[in-house]
Write a structure and sequence with these properties.
Elements: H1 7-22, E1 187-189, E2 230-232, H2 245-262, H3 271-288, H4 295-306, E3 312-313, H5 315-324, H6 331-340, E4 347-348, H7 349-357, H8 360-367, E5 369-372, E6 385-388, E7 396-397, H9 404-411, E8 417-425, E9 437-439, E10 445-449, E11 452-457, E12 487-491, E13 498-503, E14 508-510, E15 513-515, E16 520-525, E17 534-539, E18 550-555, E19 563-568, E20 574-579, E21 586-590, E22 595-600, E23 610-615, E24 628-633, E25 636-642, E26 648-652, E27 663-668, E28 681-685, E29 689-694, E30 697-703, E31 710-712, E32 718-720, E33 723-732, E34 739-749, E35 753-758, E36 774-775, E37 787-793, E38 798-803, E39 808-811, E40 816-820, E41 827-832, E42 839-852, E43 857-873, E44 886-891, E45 895-900, E46 906-911, E47 917-922, E48 928-933, E49 937-942, E50 948-954, E51 960-965, E52 971-976, E53 981-985, E54 1025-1030, E55 1036-1041, E56 1046-1050, E57 1061-1063, E58 1070-1075, E59 1081-1086, E60 1092-1099, E61 1113-1116, E62 1124-1127, H10 1175-1192
Parallel strand pairs: 5-6
Antiparallel strand pairs: 1-2, 3-4, 6-7, 8-60, 9-10, 10-11, 11-12, 13-16, 14-15, 16-17, 17-18, 19-20, 20-21, 21-22, 23-24, 24-25, 25-26, 27-28, 28-29, 29-30, 31-32, 33-34, 34-35, 35-36, 37-38, 38-39, 39-40, 41-42, 42-43, 43-44, 44-45, 45-46, 47-48, 48-49, 49-50, 51-52, 52-53, 54-55, 55-56, 56-57, ...
Protein name: EF-hand domain-containing protein
Biased composition (Basic and acidic residues): 132-142
Biased composition (Gly residues): 36-46, 64-82, 199-215
């Protein structure tokens, strides 16, 4: 305050103090007895009008020395001798206390009468009268043992050492200093004798005036190893540096004598004892600090008083300073302490003070080197220190065992593993508007989901036994327990979402090769960032992993955005496509020649307005039937045919008296007369009715299906889906397989029913069916199947159905078989069983699903009753049978429910969050469950106590995105949406400020941290990556992002935009990725596409690099040794001969690296150059080496399936 107060203010306050002391303006009856001083003896450097802070003096030294509650008073109202500026603060004694002359060692007369360790109450300098503050009752402060008694002092479980280390729990420390009659630890050790209670050596009774040592005895503070008696003292003691200066000096001299005589004296020199000694020094300094001097300044001032100018102190000097602080330290302990700080007989006290009084995390930050962002290359990885990354608000630290030559080089290489797509769960029953499910000529099922075209092969052998219901059932093989089949292959030629599919009905010739009917497929994708939409025509019998199936590719403008429907002409020559621009342009292409045959506006409006295309299948088969096709959609249906000019033109079909609705499906009926040219059109409407059109007008409506539930349409409006599935089929004789001439119209609606209409006469009649209706059963009791697409296999008489639950089924009159299971909403999370590699669980909206990935099927599912967002398996069995694990599911509104994985029976439910649970993890020992929430906290539950909440870790400022447990279950790390990485003590729920650079985590699923700082692509803002999973072996790490990519990196991944293998297939926003228990499988789940991808993790065979290549070294470039630089063949120039004209032979090549095989991108030596070759030969050798190096570091394939 003295440094900021002006001269005029200082003079005014000084005058007020003098006036108050003189009694001017205040009645004598209102004045308290004693001398009134402002600050220290009237100086302006005191603390003014401050409440007590309990920081004045060490509270453990209470009750010692002369003076008590009624000890000798000060100079009195008449005035006493002036107090020196170095003396301690004064305040008037309590009313009724007798005044007295100054006592020895107390030049100011009376003592404060206040417990030592409590700052004196300072009266404002401008007021000299009593106030209510003076009348408040005094409360004694909690007492603790003095610094001298340390062998009996109870320390916390973990004592802090220098450098941020901690000791093990201090076991065996005595508790006999705990007095049952007192509420606090108030032990004082030392030879106090009879003088302890007011004898000649000092006391605590009223009126005692003896002079005592620092602890009431001239012998000084008691020793930590003292075997003498112990007394308890609760009375106040005098304070003030000047009052005890002489006694402290004498005590210090006596203490040094005792230390030299005793030697080690059996002192405990363990790390725990040294940590306790450091804590005592800190406590003593904390008691001596003021508002003007912090602990560090006090300590440096004391060291400088004994410094001879060298900046360091000896053992004896250190013991003397410790004695002045009231902390006993023997020479042996000082020597041990010096060694702990890295010194022998002299200790630089500035460094000692900095380490002792600076927090470990701050020490680490001050001493470490700093770099910004991930390493750019392997050479930059040779760094040990702090890393500031723009994608992480907290600094990252290299581990203490960080080896850039091994770990950094590994991060610069492609992983020695790759992912092979094995199976995809789900089907696009969500937003596809046209028919998207077909049988090909081989009886395989062709469909699409996300960004993939999928060809499914049914089980070819006899069905095996049903899957075992037990939790420990293992599949018999990788392909399940069936006799074969139940597999998929994929067309991977798309880079974004596929939205339309068509199958060519005719045999065609492509580049001289004939393709049978129903073998060629066409798929269309939406526009991507890099290019506009395009259509791929490919052979459905061959997958991209087995060969090259693509036959043609048609590219379009970005303005077309994508396609909602495709259709091949009956002869296979033309391909019609409806674009998603605002005009819904209808294109007709001769796809084999990549030539546009026509284009016209289909329907104006926000896409999609057109839902499908249907060609007339009888064109060409009947000479009188012209080529034509239908387009239909939102409240319209049009017929397209060639006009007189040869251009394709459309005619609007009208409904007349019937209500115009959304048209979801349509089909051409056979000609009503043999050789006739007229084919009637039947359309499926939104309310489930069939409209029959003759010519361009509707002639009647037939009630077929219920309209079903309302659903959100692809363009955003809510409407009934009604009759979506429709297929006209020609029946065959079951014995001969020849066409029977009977034609059946299959219709499937939102009421989970398939109707079979007899349309052999070219018309539809109400109630005229070819067979009984087929009903579908749903795995979810409260959700029925809304049929999205239908096809028929005439050879087997089986109906193929795709539903809104993204399941694919085969249905006959007697049975229903699910070929491919899917999810009916966004898939938010996936978790693997800790020991069964084939068992996984997913959550999608309100459904919990358990999967058997070995058999590639759904095991069981259950409704959870809330929107689920997170799922986790318990790390150990938790039921009495020893095999049943728990499944924890977290909800979007904070619900937490626990199920048995054997039958999905709920066993516990609670709700402690308001904003929702984002992640769940069981601790490795399965004692605790941590739940990350969007409320910015983490809840920790005790599993053994029935999921009782134990702790809440609060400290994040945004949604907590992920959590990971340490291997011992004591530490928890978490990251948040605002890019903050925090570490927690799981036992206390408190944040750990010390960097967790060497903590080993059982899993690593956070997006932030040193091991994964290289996963971010260029230009990312920290939100692109949605999930991270480290393999159980810790050698690779997988990520999924907003671009629909699943990436595989080496672990640790520390290089900026590190090399990786990327895999497409998902739609945007892949939400989860996890490895199974033995790292043989990886599963990723998509949000928008509702799909789950199952990958096999394949170990790659090491590449034979051929002859090892040498590395460049620094050496002489010429025989004379005048020129130096980087070269493969340095000349051997002896020291002292440089420039002397003597030649030298080239150095021999470097030895091969350990293991025999160099890293993929590392040049290893093996090419030898003959000794004695001239510079020309060396140059030629270097040229050859450069060529080999260029071939060696070719990155090759990076991301194919």
């Amino acid at each position: 305050m003295s440094g900021t107060m002006g001269d005029s203010t200082r003079a005014r306050i000084a005058g007020a103090i003098r006036s108050a002391n003189a009694g001017g303006g205040i009645a004598s009856g209102d004045r308290a007895h004693g001398t009134y001083l402002g600050g220290y003896a009237g100086g302006m450097g005191g603390t003014w009008s401050k409440a007590p802070t309990n920081r004045g003096v060490d509270p453990m030294r209470a009750g010692e020395g002369a003076g008590g509650a009624g000890a000798g008073a000060g100079a009195g109202a008449a005035g006493g001798p002036g107090r020196p500026t170095s003396a301690s603060r004064m305040r008037p004694p309590a009313s009724g206390a007798a005044g007295g002359a100054p006592q020895p060692g107390n030049p100011s007369g009376g003592m404060t009468g206040q417990s030592q360790g409590q700052r004196e109450r300072i009266r404002p300098a401008s007021q000299g009268a009593k106030n209510a503050w003076d009348e408040l009752p005094r409360k004694e402060l909690p007492k603790a043992p003095p610094h001298g008694v340390t062998t009996k002092q109870i320390k916390p479980v973990s004592a802090t050492l220098a450098g941020g280390k901690t000791t093990k729990p201090l076991t065996g420390i005595g508790m006999d200093f705990k007095s049952p009659g007192l509420g606090q630890m108030e032990a004082v050790g030392g030879a106090l004798g009879s003088a302890a209670r007011g004898g000649p050596g000092g006391g605590g009774r009223i009126g005692s005036g003896g002079v005592g040592g620092l602890f009431g005895d001239p012998a000084g503070p008691p020793g930590r190893n003292s075997r003498q008696g112990v007394s308890y003292n609760t009375g106040p003691v005098p304070i003030g540096r000047a009052a005890f200066a002489e006694r402290e000096m004498g005590a210090a001299e006596q203490q040094m004598t005792d230390l030299r005589m005793s030697g080690t004296g059996g002192a405990d020199l363990s790390d725990a004892s040294m940590a306790m000694l450091e804590d005592q020094i800190r406590d003593a300094l904390r008691a001596r600090r003021t508002v003007y001097e912090d602990s560090k300044s006090v300590l440096l001032k004391m060291f400088k008083s004994v410094d001879d100018g060298s900046g360091d102190v000896s053992w004896e000097e250190f013991c003397s300073i410790s004695s002045q602080l009231g902390v006993e330290c023997s020479v042996a302990e000082a020597q041990r302490l010096f060694e702990r700080f890295g010194f022998k007989d002299r200790l630089p006290y500035t460094r000692f003070a900095n380490i002792l009084l600076t927090q470990p995390s701050r020490q680490l930050a001050e001493e470490m080197a700093i770099r910004h962002g991930p390493f750019k290359d392997v050479m930059a990885a040779n760094f040990h220190g702090k890393i500031k990354d723009k994608r992480c608000r907290k600094p990252l630290y290299t581990p203490t065992n960080w080896d850039p030559q091994v770990d950094g080089a590994r991060s610069a290489e492609l992983p020695n593993k790759r992912l092979v797509l094995n199976f995809v769960y789900g089907y696009n029953g969500k937003d596809a508007t046209s028919q998207n499910l077909f049988y090909n000529a081989a009886g395989q099922v062709v469909y699409f989901t996300a960004g993939l075209a999928v060809v499914y092969t049914r089980r070819s052998g006899p069905p095996g036994p049903p899957a075992t219901e037990g939790a420990d059932a293992e599949p018999s093989s990788a392909t399940g327990s069936d006799g074969g089949g139940h597999s998929q292959h994929f067309f991977l030629g798309h880079t974004d979402d596929v939205k339309a599919l068509a199958l060519c009905p005719a045999e065609v010739d492509v580049n001289g090769k004939k393709y049978p009917p129903r073998t060629i497929a066409a798929t269309a994708q939406v526009s991507s960032h890099e290019e506009g939409p395009y259509i791929c025509v490919w052979d459905s019998r061959v997958g991209s992993q087995q060969g090259e199936p693509q036959l043609a590719r048609l590219s379009f403008r970005k303005e077309d955005r994508g396609f909602s429907a495709l259709g091949f002409s009956p002869d296979g020559v033309y391909l019609a496509a409806v674009a998603n621009d605002n005009s819904h342009t209808v294109y007709v292409y001769d796809w084999r020649r990549n030539r546009q045959d026509g284009a016209a506006k289909g329907q104006m409006g926000d896409p999609p307005q057109v839902y499908g295309i249907e060609w007339n299948p009888y064109a060409g088969r009947h000479a009188a039937v012209p080529a034509a096709f239908l387009t239909f959609g939102k409240k319209h249906i049009k017929m397209w045919a060639r006009g007189d000019t040869g251009q394709w033109a459309a005619k609007q079909l009208t409904t007349g008296r019937l209500d115009m609705q959304n048209v979801h499906s349509a089909a051409w009926l056979p000609p009503r007369q043999e050789g006739g040219s007229e084919c009637m059109v039947v359309a499926g409407m939104a309310d489930g009715q069939l409209y029959l059109f003759k010519g361009t007008a509707a002639v009647k409506a037939i009630q077929a299906h219920a309209k079903g539930p309302q659903a959100i349409q692809p363009d955003g409006h809510v409407a009934y889906t009604g009759l979506r599935g429709m297929r006209l089929v020609e029946m065959r004789d079951p014995t001969t397989g020849a066409p029977s001439g009977k034609r059946v119209l299959l219709t499937g609606g939102a009421d989970s029913t398939i109707l079979r209409w007899d349309v052999s006469d070219g018309s539809v009649a109400e109630g005229r069916f070819a067979g009984p209706p087929l009903s579908l059963r749903s795995t979810l009791p409260d959700r029925g199947h809304c049929i999205r697409s239908i096809d028929y296999d005439p050879a087997r008489g089986v109906v193929l159905v795709g539903t809104n639950q993204c399941d694919i089924l085969e249905v006959t009159e007697s049975q229903q078989t699910v070929l491919v299971y899917g999810h009916c909403d966004d898939v938010w999370a996936v978790a693997f069983h800790p020991s069964l590699s084939h068992r996984a669980a997913t959550v999608s909206e309100k459904v919990l699903t358990l999967w058997d990935l070995g058999a590639r099927t759904m095991d069981r599912c259950s409704m959870v009753g809330f929107a689920a967002r997170a799922v986790a398996f318990s790390t150990k069995p938790l039921e009495a049978d020893g095999v049943t694990h728990h499944l924890a599911v977290g909800g979007a509104k904070g619900d937490l429910m626990v199920f048995l994985d054997s039958n999905l029976q709920p066993v516990h439910k609670t709700k402690d969050s308001r904003e929702g649970i984002t992640d769940l993890k069981y601790s490795p020992d399965c004692r605790l469950l941590a739940a990350a929430t969007a409320d910015t906290w983490i809840d920790i539950y005790s599993v053994s106590k029935g999921y009782t909440r134990l702790q809440r870790c609060s400290g994040h400022s945004s949604t907590v995105r992920g959590i990971d447990w340490s291997t011992d279950g004591s530490v928890l790390q978490s990251d948040s949406a605002d890019l903050e990485l925090l570490v927690w003590n799981a036992r206390t729920g408190k944040q750990i400020p010390i960097p967790s650079r060497d903590v080993q985590f059982a899993t690593y699923t956070l997006r932030l941290g040193f091991p994964v700082m290289g996963i971010w692509p260029d230009g990312s803002d920290g939100t692109d990556v949605n999930a991270v999973a480290r393999s159980r072996g810790g050698d690779v790490v997988a990520t999924c992002d907003d671009d629909g990519l699943v990436k595989l990196f080496n672990c640790p991944c520390v290089l900026d935009d590190a090399p990786h293998r990327a895999y497409r297939g998902h739609s945007s926003h892949v939400l989860g990725v996890r490895f199974n228990s033995d790292d043989t499988m990886l599963v990723s789940v998509g949000g928008y596409d509702w799909a789950m991808f199952q990958f096999n993790v394949v170990e790659l065979v090491p590449v034979d690099h051929g002859p090892y290549l040498p590395q460049k070294v620094w050496g002489a470039l010429d025989p004379e040794g005048r020129s130096f630089g980087w070269t493969y063949t340095p000349h051997n120039v002896q020291p002292g001969t440089a420039g002397g004209g003597g030649g030298g032979a080239p150095l021999p090549p470097l030895p091969a690296p350990p293991g025999g095989v160099p890293p993929t991108h590392t040049m290893a030596p093996a090419l030898q150059v003959g000794v004695g070759e001239g510079s020309g030969a060396g140059s030629r050798a270097e040229a050859e080496i450069h060529e080999q190096v260029e071939e060696e570091i070719d990155p090759g394939d990076n991301g194919s399936f």
